[in-house]
Design goal:
Layout lengths: L1 E4 L2 E4 L2 E2 H16 L20 H5 L1 H6 L1 H15 L9 H20 L9 H28 L1 H6 L6 H27 L11 H25 L2 H15 L15 H5 L2 H13 L6 H26 L2 H4 L1
Helix pairs in contact: 4-8, 5-6, 5-8, 6-8, 6-9, 6-10, 6-12, 8-9, 9-10, 9-12, 9-13, 12-13
Length: about 300
């Protein structure tokens, strides 16, 4: 059926000239081959294995540093919640240990203390050691203790052992006040190198984070680590010059003592507080070992992290 309106003819409501043009152009569009895209001479994307330092992805940890503070503050509040003595426990542990060491090793065994009153000599070694041992223990158990959080929410898992270690810095600061009081009681003034305590505390924290992080990753897969840690830490204490000075070790065996990174750090604490010369080679070895432990543990942690939610 066709109708004409003016000079234009319609067929089924469609303009005849438009229909002829469409029918004439439709086969040509099918006959015209599509042009193939030109390939670039250089590759658009290159697939390469990730570098070992890219696995650490510390940028993500830094972006969520506020979460580190929240987790650390939570650990501090939980530790002293519903306790009678509260923060006094941060002082009692090194203080009572110092009293026992003074009675048995200072009075009875007559262990030398390099001319320093034995109570403050022992307390100056127990102060960083107590922080380190508690930080490693808490950090090693941190992932298992936060299993519900790990399986429900994603965030950098490194923050959990890191927060457990940083929470111990509160106890370290409180217990340091007792050392100042003991030095005043025994008439020992702070030396001009006392400012070195701050970088030494930072190095001790780095070492504790490295050891605690590695232990926490192993503890998720091998629950024997929880039982082995207290025994290993106890042995580590006797291998560190806390009860005795480093000068008590014969010089030919002293290199074994410096292979322990805590030895140089604790001797550095005493040198900073008691007007003694720093053993810079021992401090350099301790710093290098702390860095190696931290980076190595972070790499192992990242490699094992993908299995935490399934295994824990």
């Amino acid at each position: 059926m066709s109708s004409t309106i003016g000079p234009v003819s319609l067929k089924g409501g469609v303009r005849e000239d438009a229909l002829d043009t469409a029918q004439a152009g439709y086969p040509r569009a099918l006959e015209t081959p599509e042009r193939e895209p030109e390939l670039s001479a250089s590759p658009v994307m290159t697939i390469q294995p990730r570098r070992w330092w890219a696995v650490l992805d510390l940028r993500e940890v830094w972006m969520r540093r506020d979460l580190l503070y929240l987790l650390a503050w939570r650990d501090v509040k939980v530790r002293y919640k519903q306790t009678v003595l509260g923060a006094a426990w941060a002082v009692l542990q090194p203080l009572l240990t110092m009293v026992v060491f003074t009675l048995f090793f200072g009075k009875l065994a007559r262990v030398p203390s390099d001319g320093i009153p034995y109570p403050i000599f022992a307390y100056a070694g127990l102060l960083p050691w107590t922080f380190f041992s508690n930080a490693v223990t808490n950090g090693g158990n941190s992932l298992v203790n936060n299993a519900a959080l790990i399986t429900k929410v994603y965030f950098p898992r490194m923050l959990i052992p890191g927060a457990a270690v940083c929470a111990g810095l509160v106890d370290f600061g409180i217990a340091s006040l007792i050392l100042i009081g003991l030095m005043a009681y025994y008439g020992v003034a702070l030396s001009s190198g006392a400012a070195m305590v701050i970088p030494l505390a930072m190095l001790t924290t780095m070492l504790a984070v490295g050891v605690g992080m590695g232990m926490s990753a192993l503890n998720v897969k091998y629950r024997d680590v929880r039982h082995a840690m207290p025994f290993a830490i106890q042995l580590w204490m006797f291998a560190t010059p806390i009860i005795y000075p480093a000068s008590l070790i014969p010089s030919k065996w002293r290199w074994l003592l410096w292979a322990n990174p805590l030895s140089g750090l604790i001797e550095g604490f005493r040198a900073a507080l008691f007007h003694r010369a720093f053993n810079w080679p021992a401090l350099a070895v301790s710093t290098a070992l702390a860095m190696v432990v931290l980076v190595g543990s972070a790499y192992v942690f990242r490699q094992m992290e993908r299995e935490f939610a399934d295994v824990i």
